[in-house]
Every structure is written in structure tokens, then in C-alpha cells.
Amino acid sequence: MEIDRRAFIASLGGAAVVAGMDHEAKADALEHHLEEQLDRAVAAQGQGQSEKYPTVAELEAQIETRPFRRGAGSVFVSNRGGNVKRLEPLPAKPTLLDFFRLRFAPANHVLQSATRAMKTGMSEEIILACLLHDTVQALMKPDHGWWGAQLYEAYIPEKSAFAIRYHQTLRFYPDPEAGYEYPDQYYRTFGHDYVPPQYIQDTYKMLKNHKWYMEPRLVTVNDLYAFDPNAKVSIDPFIDIIGRHFKQPKEGLGYDNSPSAHMWRTLTRPDSPL
Length: 274
Ligand SMILES: [Fe+2]
Ligand SMILES: [Fe+2]
Prior knowledge:
By secondary structure, the protein is an all-alpha fold. It has helices at 5-11, 15-19, 23-44, 49-52, 56-61, 96-104, 108-119, 124-132, 144-152, 158-170, 184-190, 198-208, 214-221, 239-245, 261-268. The structure holds fe (ii) ion (2 copies).
């Protein structure tokens, strides 16, 4: 697929913004750009999505074509071909920001989501939830809502953890009133004929009548793969919110005996054989 360089650079906020992006961030942006372009090309062909997106069976048939499983966390697999790279060690008492820098980077997707949440005047609990909502995918992808909530719930407001846990479920269910449609990307990721498993359906039923329904819903509303054309994405605007709402343990993440300390340690040392 050909890429229109000018349109791509403009979509990132112009040449100056691109110049300030590191190599990983550029590669990530390019990947999203190509995905979006592909979506548009498919739509432009004027054929039904079902003819262009894979089926569940086709995706299942790909399982045995890979040396890893799709659910493996991103720190365990090289996603750009070739071998994995040596990871920079974390400091002895690592903070959330250390994990962002050394394990979650470039974290473009969550930074974009949180940037949008901040721009649209969401609560600090939601902005924090958006900032953290997919970061656990470095460790584990299946059920990332539940894994993510567990990773963070000892350290963040209950509403933020609720939003992280359940955004995964609400991604499958449109809510046009709230401004959320089923993502085209999910046709490609899960198959166009995908039906969420029973526990997701049951969770959705529970959420519909929950007084906190809008917390995870607002994460899905901000859960986009698009750069704000005028903003350079960075964690800096969120430092204060993290300071106010993230209870950084003095021993460092992984060493405070919290229920998720082992998850932080695994992220710290993913090369450990046992
Ligand atoms: Fe997610
Ligand atoms: Fe997301």
C-alpha cells in the first residue's frame, strides 16, 4: 500500500512534531496510519465489510502459523520482526513513570486517549483511567481489562480501576448517545462474525444498570487511534494527575507486597526464566 507522506506528516501535527518523535513513536504512528488507510480503502470499495474482513475461522486458522500466541504481552515478543531487544533495567525503586519510559514506551495509544480525555474535560479519574487502560498489554493481552484493573487497583481511585476493568467489555457494544461506535478495527482483530463470549455478554448486562456505567464508557469514547493534529503527545501533562491520584509505593512498584506486586516484577524482569 502506498502512503501519502504529506497527509501522514500532517496527520501527526506537521514536520516539527514528527522531528521530535523518536524512532519507536514514528514506527507506531506509521503502523496506525497504515491500518486507518486500509480501513478507508476497504470502505471505499463499497463492498460489505463481511467480504473484506477475516472471519473468526480464518483468524483461528492463523494460530498455527506463528511461533507465539496472539495474547503474549508485548514485552515478550518482537513485534517488528527479528529478535527481541535487551531491556534497560529499571531503577531499584521503580515508579509508574519509570515503567512508562522503560516498559510501556512508546505508549502512544494510551497517551492519545488520555490527551483526548483531558481536552474534552473529563474527570481526573477518567483521564487517569485512559492513561493506564491498555498498558497491561505489555504483560498480557487476553482479558486486559481485568488484568489492567488488578495491576493498578491498589494504587488508584476505585472509579479509575472500575473504568479500566470494564472498558474491555464496553468496546464490543456501541452506545451512539455517548458517542461510541463499534470500532472497524475489531472486525479485523476479532473477525467480522465475532460474538463476544458469554461472560462478556453477562458483564455488559451488569454494566448497563450500574451507577458507574459511564466510567468505562468514557474510556471507550476516548479509546481512539488518532493523533490530535495540534498536540504533541507526551506524558508531561499527566504528571500532576498521577501525583494526585497514583499512590506510588515508597519501596517501588513490585516491592511493596501489594496483591499485584508480582505483576510489576514480571514486567521488570521479563527475561527471567522462572
Ligand atoms: Fe483496551
Ligand atoms: Fe485502548
